[in-house]
Amino acid sequence: MERCLEVEQFMFYGMCQCVDSFLFVYTFLPLRALVTLKSLICSSLSKLKDNHGRKYLSAAGICDLRKIAVLMKCLMMLLPRDTSMIYHVIKSQTVIKL
Fold first, then answer.
1. Digit-coded pLDDT (tens) for 34-79
2. Residue 54 gets which letter from DSSP?
3. How far apart, in whole angstroms, are the C-alpha atoms of residue 27 and residue 38?
4. Chief location of this protein (predicted)?
5. What CA–CA distances, in Å, run from 92 to 63, 81, 82?
6. Cα separation of 68 and 62, whole Å?
7. Closest among 85, 40, 89 to 62, alpha carbons compared
8. What is the pLDDT of residue 66?
9. Largest CA-CA distance found in the chain, in angstroms, rounded
């Protein structure tokens, strides 16, 4: 009986990890990307005023912008698709059923 409780706890932990990842991508990542874009715009405007050799973005900011670019590209590719048709095509494949 104790073993079933361990499996349930592990499944709950996995579900919490998935929810955390989902919420990060759709809430926190866009906010971080907006802050990075604001920082990029402000630093490029200040670069026009004075010619100091400053870095525009940090590595984390570049990574955030790339993640948003991938997310937007996937969204643009999936929007014109009919999801119900994709579901039925996948359901009819015998390899997926195994």
1. 999 998 888 887 766 666 656 678 899 999 999 999 999 999 998 9
2. -
3. 17
4. membrane
5. 38, 18, 16
6. 10
7. 40
8. 95
9. 70
